[in-house]
Amino acid sequence: MKRVWTLAGKDLLETRRDRLSLLFTLVMPLVFTAFFGLLFGGGSDRLPLAVWSGDTGPAATQLLGALERSDVVAVHRMTKADAEKAVDDGRQAAALEVPAGFSGDLAAGKPVTLTVVGVSGSTGVQAVQTEVSSLAGRQAVLERAAQAAAAAAGKPIGQPQTSVANLTAAALAMARPLAQQSLAHPVATLRVVQAGAAAGQVPTGFDLSSPGMLINFIMFSLLTAGIALIQERQNFTLLRLMTTQVHRWELIAGKVAGMFILTFVQQIILIAAGQFLFGVDYLRDPAALLLMMIATSLVASTLGLLLASLLKSEQALIATVVITSMAVSALSGAWFPLEITGPAFRFVGHLLPTAWILDGLRGIILRGFGVADVMPALVVALAWSAGLFVLAVWRFRLTD
Amino acid sequence: MSIVEVQELRKQYDPPKGVLAVDGVSFDIAQGEIFSLLGPNGAGKSTTISMLSCLLHPSGGDALVDGHSVVTDSQAVKEAIGVVPQDIALYPDMSARENLVFWGKMYGLAGGELQTRVDEVLELITLVDRQKDRLEKFSGGMKRRVNIGVALLHKPRVLYLDEPTVGIDPQSRRSILDGILALRDQGMTILYTTHYMAEAQELSDRIGIVDHGAMIAVGTNDELVKIVGEEAHVDLRVDHYLDGMVERWAQVLGVTKAMIDEDHAVLLVQDANEVLPRLFEAAAAAGSRITEVNVTEPNLEMVFLHLTGRALRE
């Protein structure tokens, strides 16, 4: 095994001395993370709240209007299914259901229930709960006051007409006990429903861009490692290595180990920058994060080995890596979340291990994914890596 | 006692219709001997070295290196040999010392032994002062020296040198040849391939001449030269009608072979002093005039010419 580490160490030394590789592995990803992070919006002060309403009555309309004017929540109206998925995916802090008959029941003085879907106890949901409760309570009081006013104004004709002041006084006299009753026994109650592992965190632009650019530029770092391997084949050092006591498996393992370590170190630096520079919460579950990093480096190193084994020239490798990394990044959701794409695009994207890894990384950042939650991504990445490795070993050549 | 024994070694690429690069080559090398494989490019020298280095699996035959078969015991063979490839197989963005340390580890050296051997080899290749410089800054000759130094790190019992002087200046070539002779004097066994006749003549204890994958002659320089007997080698240039002249000269008494080599004629003659006037006469009779004459005493070039009908550099 000593020779494997010596081979890997030599590759890392050469990479460290290559300024171009420093640009591609560290500088460019940080620049692009910042760029896309700012492009995605850099975060909002208001909590995203998915809302679906089964009622179009006046009370429901006014409640939704009040929520839309709120400084606490940002309302996104959608269907029930989309709202629940958005909460599940961590794109919405919570979802609110306004039930059918809400306005009628409220007008009739019947108790109504608003349902908030989210993770009970999470900071985001608590804030949503408070805001909805406050606005709904106010709406209920208004409704009672309006009823009182209507009752006062609707006294039978024929009775002596009174002044506006008298009417107001009569309305208030009727409204006060109703309002007191509302406050004592809220008409609109809230029910919080558990929603998957959603943590109700508001995604910032950097939450989206940082893992995306990580995957994107891990792919680009294959350029450095791949070119080094092609150059070794062209200048006959690979062949010469086989005249020493090095076994073929040690040579291949050394190359894979070099690429693995390179991409792993790259990830450590980019994740540290994401955590401390861009405020992306990668460290919510370090064990899960470690598994995703291993998965990423395994896929990258085996893919790098395969490309360098298949391709003969540096030019061919550069063209292939650029096209591959662009295509893989786009399909995997590195540039934009796959949730905003159609089902066909999402399906194709999830044929690739990188889409699963990105799901895992974003799940850790936004939804507090643990080891069990990232297992599917790890399994897919391991399967892909095994396949790529077998192909690479089969096609591995010492000379052109 | 032979340290290398090659027995009917054969290599055919993509059999059964592929190129037969080495066709049943046999030879042996004694301990402490420099043995050269001399032949033109494409003769099968590098393929033979590749099989003896366990890089290529022979299609037939076998070779024993330090008692180990290249077919069945490649790891033991690799421990016994040091290989200097024709190309400079090194890492240009690493220093001379870093290259030597890396390759030393690949040969299984470690710790103090590794550092000692690196120091000794740097001394041997006279690059102690430049050991920290990256190879990309080195001249071709200096790179060649490092290329050789790498193969010496683990003190191999047999050193293979595959055309180590290709493409370098005369001064560097001289330095490398002197270094090889010094290694032989220290008791190292060397297998050397070249297409330069002068190198083979100067370095070798014995020489194997190869052509088209076959060994066509083996022996010491003197033994090989005797193949052509006392024949002298005559190069002739004429002002015109070269093609016709070669045919006429082939008929001249005392000429044993006549052929065209690029822009001049090459003749093997029994006695140059007697034959030369006849050659001038024949040229004059054909309306040509000889403009240049070079007479060379019997050498390996002539042996090759004699055995193959072609010049060595073809």
Characteristics of this structure?
heterodimer; A: 400 residues; alpha/beta; 5-stranded mixed sheet; 5 strands; 67% helix; 7% strand; rod-shaped; B: 314 residues; Rossmann fold; Alpha-Beta Plaits; 2 domains; 6-stranded mixed sheet; 11 helices
Describe this structure in words.
Chain A has 400 residues and is of the alpha/beta class. The longest helix of chain A is centred in the middle third of the chain and has 31 residues, at 123-153. Helix content of chain A is 67%, strand content 7%. Chain A is rod-shaped and about 110 Å long. Chain A has two domains: 2-40 and 203-395, no CATH class; 47-193, abc type-2 transporter like fold, CATH 3.40.1710. Residues 195-200 of chain A have low confidence and may be disordered. A five-stranded mixed sheet of chain A has the order 2-1-3-4-5, with helices on both faces. Chain B has 314 residues and is of the alpha/beta class. Chain B has two domains: 2-225, P-loop containing nucleotide triphosphate hydrolases (Rossmann fold); 230-297, Alpha-Beta Plaits, CATH 3.30.70. Chain B has eleven helices and 14 strands. Chain B has helices spanning 45-52, 74-80, 96-106, 111-124, 140-152, 170-185, 197-203, 221-225, 242-250, 272-285, 300-308, and strands at residues 2-12, 20-30, 34-38, 60-65, 68-69, 81-84, 158-162, 189-194, 206-211, 214-219, 232-238, 255-261, 264-269, 290-296. A six-stranded mixed sheet of chain B has the order 6-7-8-3-9-10, sandwiched between helices. In chain B, helix 3 (96-106) packs across helix 4 (111-124), helix 3 packs parallel to helix 5 and helix 5 (140-152) packs parallel to helix 6 (170-185). The radius of gyration of chain B is 23 Å and the shape is elongated. The mean pLDDT of chain B is 89. The interface between A and B is medium-sized, with 20 and 26 residues.
